[in-house]
Design a protein that fits this description.
Elements (H helix, E strand, L loop, with lengths): L1 E6 L12 H7 L5 E9 L9 H9 L2 E11 L2 E2 L5 E2 L2 E10 L3 E8 L14 E9 L2 E9 L5 H16 L1 H4 L24 E6 L9 H5 L1 E3 L2 E3 L6 E2 H4 L17 E5 L7 E6 L11 E5 L2
Parallel strand pairs: 1-2, 9-10
Antiparallel strand pairs: 1-16, 2-6, 3-6, 4-5, 7-8, 8-9, 10-14, 11-12, 13-14, 15-16
Helix pairs in contact: 1-2
């Protein structure tokens, strides 16, 4: 299975050109893709639904969640309202069905004089051929650790408590209720990916992967493994966002770490201001 995460910079490439099709083409080989900075309903790009466009070009299933959401309605000369909402967020695009999902808001504290916006994540279960797989797609604050630390804590708690929280419904409804399906699976194996806006040198990283030790990270059962290092790469010395370091990550539950076969960054792909990260799993 080939997995990818990609901050698509709302479809604008490093060359300043808007082209959603080349975003899709950049990740076409991947089976599951987590996308960040995806927009829907903005007048600047004619109210495009970028996730739907990408999924249609690749013939994939998709789920979009826009934590930042606002009005984008128009009123014509006759006073007729066209109701529209504009949103900015994350998406999962998958070769296989997305069995269930939820969009979740991450903690946000209002800043007095610095731009930030509501962040969130998608929790989903994908029907991979090897069995259901839990996938999280997120984008944390770009401002700094003050905003990100509560977001990391909330995300890690959600990953850990998934068996307790369960899926988006429990058991089955009564005979007269429309829900007759049994409770959905909540797989133990999970991939947590996205633009985290921190590198391994930042203080948020140990909260995910453990503190440095004499033989590598001292990860507990409640931490995650970094797929990049599980593939044999060094923590540092590479960028996923030019001149900012490796801030786009694919973290996995420890059972998946031995199944990581390779990881690479798509340097030279100029469809966004970030580069896509690809991880190959033997599932």
């Amino acid at each position: 299975m080939l997995f990818s995460t990609y901050n698509i910079h709302y479809g604008v490439g490093a060359d300043g050109k808007y082209d959603v099709a080349r975003i899709a083409d950049a990740v076409a080989e991947a089976d599951i893709v987590c996308l960040q900075e995806v927009v829907r309903g903005w007048p600047q790009n004619f109210y495009a639904d970028q996730t739907a466009e990408i999924a249609a070009r690749l013939n994939r299933y998709f789920r979009f969640h826009g934590p930042m959401e606002a009005d984008a309605s128009t009123v014509d000369a006759d006073g007729l309202i066209t109701n529209r909402r504009r949103s900015f967020g994350n998406a999962i695009v998958s070769r296989w069905p997305i069995l269930w999902s939820r969009g979740v808001m991450l903690p946000k504290v209002r800043l007095a004089n610095t731009f930030d916006l509501q962040r969130g994540y998608i929790e989903a279960v994908v029907a991979a051929p090897s069995g259901p797989l839990r996938v999280y797609c997120t984008h944390l604050s770009h401002v700094g650790a003050q905003q990100r630390l509560p977001q990391v804590a909330a995300l890690m708690d959600a990953v850990k408590r998934a068996p307790v929280t369960g899926g988006t419904w429990d058991a089955a409804g009564g005979e007269t209720f429309m829900f007759q399906e049994p409770a959905p699976a909540v797989p133990a194996s999970a991939i947590v990916a996205g633009d985290f806006n921190f590198t391994p040198a930042h203080l948020e990283y140990p909260l995910v992967c453990g503190m440095p030790g004499p033989r590598g990270r001292l990860a507990t059962a409640e931490h995650l493994s970094d797929a990049w290092t599980a593939a044999g790469n060094s923590e540092e010395g590479v960028d996923s966002f030019p001149r900012e370091g490796r801030i786009d990550h694919v973290f996995v539950t420890h059972d998946l770490a031995p199944r990581v076969k390779a990881a690479r960054i798509g340097h030279g792909i100029d469809a966004s201001d970030h580069w896509p990260v690809f991880v190959e799993f033997d599932l």
